[in-house]
Amino acid sequence: MHRQKSILATICIQAAVPLVTYLPLFLSILIVDNSWGISTSESAQWYDMGVVHYAAAWGPAIDALASIACLKPYR
Question: What are the UniProt keywords, alphabetically (predicted)?
Answer without folding.
Answer: Membrane, Transmembrane, Transmembrane helix
